[in-house]
Structure formats: C-alpha cells, structure tokens
Amino acid sequence: MRLLAAIFAVALAGAPAAAGADRGALTLELGPSLSLLSASPSQGAGATTLATGGGGTIGLRYALSNALEVGGFALWETAADYFHSGVELSTATGQVRGTLAERAQRYGALAGVHYVRGFVWRLHLGAELGWTREAFTRRDLLDVSDPSNVHSFGLGLGDRTTDLLVVAPVAGVEWQFADHWSVSVMPRLQVLVGGSSRVGLLVPVTVGYSWYVF
Known about the structure:
Strand content: over 45%
CATH class: Mainly Beta
Distance between the termini: 35 Å
Radius of gyration: 21 Å
Number of domains: 1
Order of helices and strands: HEEEEEEEEEEE
Number of helices: 1
Largest sheet: 11 strands, antiparallel
Number of strands: 11
Shape: elongated
CATH architecture: Beta Barrel
C-alpha cells in the first residue's frame, strides 16, 4: 500500500491539470513482472510462506476518451519451490504432520478500467478483475522431526490446481518517451479470493507501442 501511495503522490505532483490519455489509442504492452505473495500450502493447514516470483505480462489497452482507458493483460510466472512447515494431512492410518514441499506456478488474466492524467508523464489509477490459476507439482510431505534424517512420509501426493478470483486496485506511472512508444510501471495490489484468501503485490514493468484507431 505504501508503494502505491508513493507512486500516486509523485505522479500527481508532476502531472498537468488536464487529462492526457490519447483518445482512440490502442496500446500493446509487453514486459517482465515481479510479485510478492503470502503463499499457503496446497493441502492441509500449515505455515504460509512469503514468496517472491518473476515472470512476464502481455496486455492491450484502448483509450475510450482522453481520460479513460479499458484493457486487459495476461500474466505468467516461473515455477518456484516452496516449503510449508507444520502441515497436517489425513491418511488411512490417521493424521500425519510434517513439512510440505511443492513446486508452484501461477498464470492468469485481468481486465479493467484506468483513469489517466498527464501527457508525457501519465498517472494511471484504476481497478481490475480477473482470474489466476496456481498449479502445484512435485508435492511431498517430509518428516523433519530428526534434522539428521529428513525423509518423505511416502504419501504419494498428486498434482493439484487452484483457481482464484482476483480483485486488483492499480496505481502506476507511464512515460511516453517517443512517438507511439512508452514505458510503464503499474503495481497492482492483488486480493486473491477463493480457498485461502490472500493478498499479494504484482509489479509489471512494460514497454508499449500505440496505434491510433479511433
């Protein structure tokens, strides 16, 4: 939240009084992204992990007016290994408690509306709604009671996927550094709803190219 507020304050201070989106502009944007998320175990109750990730985004925006844009983007993150301690699972012989090791990967899409203010430097404020899927592979519950003899419980845990609704307020800055070309930083505070609801931060850094289609 502090990062979003800081971007808003800096961009608002430097923006001209009039709105400055380009009505009729269709912008294709592409670039890397970073994320920060409270990751929960894919099964059972246990400790969450503060996970960082990297990936890429591709998006399309259209300016309905000089102050209003609609658009959407797709995101993909590289797989990362997580370890959740104190996870308790039910088996045929009773409850088993250990550390859940798993590989997680996320991808999804969002769409929404942005209010745009400024000319060369443009402030974006908006809201987006979308979906994300978490895919969990290489899942195994480990017995770590003896640090010198860490081993698997041998439960044969299969792969899992989880689909989540995403609600994301947006506050970012776009710089039009050349005719048709721009670069932007658009942090999104993502509220993931469904299963274990969580909050995360997604920061795409993209280069965009605009056509004027009207």
